[in-house]
């Protein structure tokens, strides 16, 4: 009598982090990876959920900064808060201390659900402040860093967010320099040319990281 073959071992999808300074183009890279089949979770979207009306996160921010950070509908006015925290390091540290634990809790809950899918090969967590937060991510296998020259980043931020060049530079200065991030990253995508060239660079990395662990 033939013995039954053991069932194939279920492999987990690879979990990677995608990061990069403001204006670097990490959102474009994330969209490409998602289009090619990766599950993408964006920490910025989780951050918005953490400060919805009625949440402890929003209540803590209002208690610290007052009602002027709210819009007419009682929602967080991100521009008003941004003007405060990018000009004041202690204020920025306070906001991060309020939001980061809540964001991490939501991310781990999403990760647990995504890992149950037998069809996923790659999960990408987009974390703009991956290094700045000082948080540990033992679930992350590899880190992809998107970089771009500062003048190009400034022009992108000015066009996208309708900010002055000075305000754009202040936001860049509030984050760690790319040189420091590069030392701690596994892959680096330099986004300094056309969208097609960015896609070509990203696809090379995707082919490697989409292989299951």
Description:
With 213 residues, the chain is α/β, with parallel strands linked by helices. It is built from 9 helices and 5 strands. It has helices spanning 26-35, 43-50, 56-65, 78-85, 89-114, 150-161, 165-173, 178-182, 195-209; strands at 14-20, 39-42, 122-126, 142-147, 187-190. α2 (43-50) packs across α5 and α6 (150-161) crosses α7 (165-173). The radius of gyration is 19 Å and the shape is globular.
Structural class category: alpha/beta
CA distance, first residue to last residue: 35 Å
Number of helices: 9
Strands in their spatial order, largest beta sheet: 2-3-1-4-5
Instruction: Give the class-level CATH name of the domain at 14-44 and 102-209.
Output: Alpha Beta
Overall pLDDT level? 91
CATH architecture of the domain at 14-44 and 102-209: 3-Layer(aba) Sandwich
Roughly what percent helix?
40-55%
The sequence of SSEs as H and E is EHEHHHHEEHHHEH
Provide the CATH topology of the domain at 14-44 and 102-209. Rossmann fold
CATH superfamily of the domain at 14-44 and 102-209: P-loop containing nucleotide triphosphate hydrolases
Outline type: globular
* Biggest sheet features: 5 strands, parallel
Low-pLDDT runs: none
Number of strands: 5
Instruction: Give the strand content.
Output: 5-15%
What Rg, in angstroms, do the CA atoms define?
19 Å
